[in-house]
Amino acid sequence: MTPHHHASDELLLAYAAGRLDESLALLVATHLALCPHCRAEVERMEVLGGTIIEDLPPAPVASDALDVVLDRLDEEWEGPPARSRMEKIEDESARMLPQPLRDYLGGRLNTLKWRKLGPGVRQFQIIPRREGIATSLLRIAPNTAIPHHGHGGSEHTLVLAGSYMDETGQFRRGDVQSADDELTHRPVSGGEEECYCLIVADAPLRFTGLAGRILQPFLRF
Ligand SMILES: [Zn+2]
Fold first, then answer.
1. How high is the pLDDT of residue 49?
2. I need a labelling partner for 15 at 20 to 30 A (CA). Which of 9, 37, 168, 210 fits?
3. Tell me, what DSSP letter sits at residue 67?
């Protein structure tokens, strides 16, 4: 099933141009594995990038768009490095992970060292936090609410299994939600199965409700 909520054009363009950092590149690559619509978009952007190069006049022309294309030629991006490609798949449950993420996790899911964040919520940090960017998997029990929170910066969520719902809509496998500091929400996971999400955040979440403030010290995404 094609996802309903896609990666933004901004993300796809930056991905096509090879300009995303490791964390967001992993998130977009994982979405693309699940989304024919965005795969076609990225292909179109890449073809467009190639056409721009072919149409270039002999004299250099300075523009941002051009820089993007030129950078792309300089550094052909080959996808996020697979850290544990050699490890065999140990976890049956990891098979639901799209390839880019499965490679990243060495085919493990249940045997990862999950950290308990609160009732029904566990977290695994995929990439060590650096330059304020946090990359983690969240595993949320069915019908569980994440306390009401806002965002100090941007936060991108990709649903891998199950679903959740917030004030803006419902998100299922393959869907991406990009939140900025304007969004305050209270996501609740669906009742059908555990919800797994890949989350890339560039600032800690700010909790607004009382439950959230109590939880805040433990929730370091
Ligand atoms: Zn998409």
1. 75
2. 168
3. H
**C-alpha 68 to ligand 1 mean position (Å):** 22
Q: Where are the alpha helices (DSSP H) in the chain?
A: 9-16, 22-34, 36-54, 64-74, 99-104, 210-215
Instruction: Answer with the residue of higher pLDDT: 132 or 40.
Output: 40
Q: Based on the number of CB atoms within 10 Å of its own CB, is 182 exposed (0-12), middle (13-18) or buried (19 or more)?
A: exposed
37 CA → ligand 1 middle, Å:
5
Q: What is the CATH number of the domain that holds 35?
A: 1.10.10.1320
Confidence class of residue 73 from pLDDT cuts 50, 70 and 90? low
Q: What is the pLDDT of residue 76?
A: 47
CA of 134 to the centre of ligand 1 (A): 22
Query: Ligand 1 center to residue 7 CA distance, Å?
Result: 5
Give residue 164 CA to ligand 1 midpoint distance, Å: 17
111 CA → ligand 1 middle, Å: 29
Domain boundary among 59, 74, 89: 74
Domain count, the chain: 2
**pTM score over 0.90:** no
Of 164, 154, 151, 148, the residue nearest 196 (C-alpha): 164
